[in-house]
Amino acid sequence: MTASIQQGDAIDATKVSDPHRDVDVILDPQEHRRAVAQAPVILRVRELKKSFQGLRAVDDVSFDLHKGEVISIIGPNGSGKSTTINLISGFLTPDSGLIDIEDEPIAGRGSANVSERGIARTFQNGRVFGALSVDENIALGYHKKLSSQRPFKGLQRFPIIRWLSLLAETGAALLPFPAIARENKEVDERVVREIDRFKERLGTRRNDLAYTLSYANRRRTEIARAHISEPKLLLLDEPTAGMNQSETAEVLQQLQYLKAQGHTILLVEHKIELVTAISDQVLAMDGGKIIASGEPDEVRNTPAVIEAYLGKRRETRISTAQADVLAKQNSIEELEEGTESAQGDALARSRETEQNATPDLLDLDDVDVFYGQVHALQQVSLHVPPKAIVSLLGGNASGKSTTMKTILGLVNPKNGSIQYQGRDITSLSTRHRVIEGIASVPEARRVFPAMTVQENLLSGAYTRSRSDDIAGDLEEMYERFPRLKERRAQQAGTMSGGEQQMLAFARALMSKPKIICMDEPTMGLSPKLVEDVLEQIVKLRDEIGVSVLLVEQQAELALSVADYGYVLQNGSIRLHGEAQTLLHDPRVQEAYLGGAKENNK
Fold it and tell me: Going by DSSP bridges, is the β-strand pair 515-519/438-441 parallel, antiparallel, or unpaired?
């Protein structure tokens, strides 16, 4: 059986192939949810809180996870999902709150201690030991369960005498006692059982070093390593990240089988179709809080969840060119039907002539980008006209930031080309692209915190000739951003988030760009500061004539100021068109939340 997670699929029951027997297991989602709701609680989280330098990453999170239940945590970037997983697995210590495994407190005990109590996990970016074989990587997951080979393992929690435990393990490895031989045989049997779950992919690769594996096979190895100890709770942090559709379907099938066996799973995942197919309950997070919980379809159609992914519907700010076109359209509509048709044809011809007369400023044509074996961008084509705002939209891990890095020359495409002002710049260095007029405002601003405002601004002009009027441009930035003039001698790291974003804008303008690539410029800002940032983006287009490629996760927000938009999903362009058309297109919502319905705005 090959699992299917096509967009919009209805999941009424799940048929799961048992890899060890030639049978299928039928799971009815509703029956399974009712059954696990009556089961004992494995994980109890209460009022969990964690802050980083004043930023509340996890804020009063509470939930129960029952034996045999699968709960998924979803949410946009920065919502607190991975921080929650890291708190539960002991990689972070909570500021306050309770985390219990089968009523035993584990909050703040450390990852090794938590692991000993029956929690196993995978990691968002995939972590295998490249110099070890597949078998050796998987066997490591059972190390915490060994007894004969770890005679004094209880001492490891005491820093002063933990060396005794390590010395005992070394001795056990050198002296093959019968009990140790039996234990090694048991580990080998368990490794074979885990390999069998992925036998078509890993069966012939058991002795291969992990670094030689494809990305997807490394993720499979990591899942097998986490599962070999038969943990009380399996934490999976984006297990299908970087996988294509068929690979994702294969992992889904394995997860469904684990669910059918009664495993308890807490999953963080961005692929909504997978979440819907596997989950009993879904927790949606935003701003560190749980904003919705319940069955998958119920949660992804909750207005607060849709708003968290797409942003709030805002008043649209159109460019002067757009306003002229709309005015012409309104005038045409007032004419008689026959005249309307003729005038409409004339306007269409006028637009076509104007487009032909003004070539695009930037063109990406059939661009493919790989990170190792991961196909991050798949035949991506997009076009940025002069004096325009183009929004590049998509959910987490859809390929937005990779597209921007490719334009800036930080990532090299394997196939396709990049044209700038009619010239191929695919092989041009980042420095020379900046000199040619391509600037960036990176995610999280990334100003130089120990440098003053003025020093940061001058760093934006480092590629320019000394003969240029840099001093005059500096004064122009102070005139455009008066707040920066007031703080010109202040260290940038001491400014507010909104002020740092203004500084990042001004620094980019100091390179005299024709196009600015902005990566999530509103992230982490208050609503009032978001309005200010969007106002400045519109001014860049309307007052200076700079084109903006706006990489943004919140669709409603970005489309409200854009002329044109592209929607990325799993590294491919799924939708594109005029911003006003996309703003009301339900397929945009589906690209973020699967088969979500349009009536939740």
Answer: parallel
Write the pLDDT tens digit of every residue in 80-101: 888 899 999 998 999 999 999 9
**Position of tokens 């070394």?**
170
476-492: pLDDT as tens digits: 888 888 888 888 888 88
Tokens of 401: 């930031």
Question: Is the torsion defined by CA of 33, 105, 236, 112 positive or negative?
Answer: negative
**Which residue, 207, 206, 212, 236, is CA-closest to 222?**
236
Give the contacts of 310 (CB within 8 A, at least 6 positions apart). 554, 555, 556, 588, 589, 592
Domain residue ranges of the chain, discontinuous segments joined by +: 21-128+217-300, 133-212, 320-437+513-593
pLDDT at site 149: 66
Q: What does the alpha-carbon distance between residue 600 and residue 85 come to, in Å, rounded to a whole number?
A: 29
User: Which amino acid, one-letter code, is at 103?
Assistant: D
Q: Do domains 21-128+217-300 and 320-437+513-593 have the same CATH topology?
A: yes
To which H or E segment does residue 443 belong?
none
Instruction: Tell the burial category of 572 from Cβ atoms under 10 Å away from its Cβ (0-12, 13-18, 19+).
Output: middle
Residue 532 CA: distances (Å) to CA of 416, 499, 525: 37, 10, 10
What residues form DSSP beta bridges with 566?
392, 576
DSSP 40: P
CA 593 to chain CA centroid, nearest Å: 14
Q: What is the DSSP string of 305-340?
A: HHHHHH---------HHHHHHHHHHHHHHTS-HHHH
pTM of the predicted model, to two decimals?
0.64
Residue pair 581/337 in contact (Cβ under 8 Å)? The answer is no
Residue with token string 């002795």: 207
**Domain 21-128+217-300 in CATH 3.40.50.300:** yes
In terms of Cβ atoms closer than 10 Å to its own Cβ (0-12, 13-18, 19+), residue 408 is: middle
Whole-angstrom distance, CA of residue 597 vs CA of residue 586: 7
Residue with tokens 């368990």, as numbered in its chain: 190
The yes or no reply on domain 320-437+513-593 and CATH 3.40.50.300 is yes
Give the rounded percent of residues in the chain with a pLDDT score beyond 70. Answer: 79
pLDDT tens digits along 154-188: 666 666 766 676 676 776 667 777 877 787 888 88
Contact yes or no for 291/260 (Cβ under 8 A)? no
Q: Which residues contact 31 (CB under 8 A, 6 or more apart)?
A: none
